[in-house]
Amino acid sequence: MSSQSKTLSAIGEISAPETSAAFKRRFMMRMIFVLTGGMFLDGYILGIVGPVSSRLTAELGVSMFWEGLIAAGALFGILFGSPLGGWAADKYGRKPLFMADMGLFLISSALQFFVSSPLQLFIVRLLMGVAIGAEYSVGWPLMSEFAPSRLRGRLMGLTQVAWYAGFMIAFAVGFALNESTHLGWRFILGTSSFIAAILFVARVGLPESPRWLWNQKRVREARAVARRYMESAADAADVERECAAVHGAGLGMLFSAKYWRATLFMSMFWFCAVTPYFAIGTFADSVLQRYGLGGGLAGGIGLSAVALAGVVVTVLLIDKLGRRTLTVPPQWLCTVVLAIIGLWTGAPPVAVLVLFLVFSFFNAGYNTLTGVYPGEVFPTEVRCIGTGFAAAVSRVGAGLGTFLLPWSMSHIGASGTMLIAAGIAGLGAALSQWLAPETRGKSLSETAAGFTH
To answer: Which residues cross the membrane (predicted)?
Structure first.
């Protein structure tokens, strides 16, 4: 075999079995597993805190301040990890960051077994959040860059199914282990380490994004990866169409005349979508009890299960009804629902529960779009930093909501707290009414063209 043939074979361009449809399907299944696994972990580490919060509070002597800070620690970590990871993924590649973030998560998660103070627990969960933030900024872009155009919405939405499933399963696992075993809260929190170890091993050997390679002028490698792993010739060709139109890169491009609308929409839509959910979902037990409803497993799992159903329905409909239809109307509905909860102070508990369930279903539905839009509206050269920046902005709201909710419920009251949540949801609805794009059925070269008029 000539040296040229050996080179081509090495990069996968002439190996028929490795470019077959079956090979590409297996690769996509593996990609889906590791990407959804990352989102599952994010939901898991946030959902596992609630069931053990009373035990760790008592053992560590945690004040209300530290309780909120520990619950929000991972969210604040995402605030820093998302833009940092996004910058690094755009500069150094998706592949190295994809391994590094899971490695950091595995180490920091394992440290939960050994914490002995509120400060240590906060720092450990902050580091876990940094890793998850990096996962946000590289995972969704990587999925969008490999996913077939015809399935992109559903596949990216599937990561959100994993997030809500992780949150719900963590709550159930934490509740069961806390109530039925003698395992300590450190072990219960540290169960995320076992999931992280599996995902770290499963990521070994995954390829670099062909769009990033092309953007780095590594054209030969980009074509080889696209041919070997991408489902159709049209998707592979779109790599060249999008990347041929690149003009500059960097954080500043997010605020350029062409892309500022995408940055504003993605950041604030995400902020307004997650802030009420994290605040209510993390402390579902205490929120429901404040309204005279039974807490415990039924309350926390009930809200999470309904939210998961909302995500599943959205994923099934996203490539049929389109992005905008599933983004704008549900936000207005949730605004009204939260306002009713806040204003109807004498509502019977069953009515309040129904309203909370309606909010959980539809809020989770449009939250699904926060995992779809970033990979579509930002171009390759800033796809990761754009996603990371938007994720960071969203986690400011999520972190503050989680941190301040216990204080707000005590000092402002349940009614006032729900009205504040309604105002945030209404802001997101108005912004989406103005800016939310329709990207259904479009290639990335079309969706990343920017919000031009």
So the answer is: 32-52, 64-85, 97-115, 121-143, 155-177, 183-206, 262-284, 296-318, 330-362, 412-436
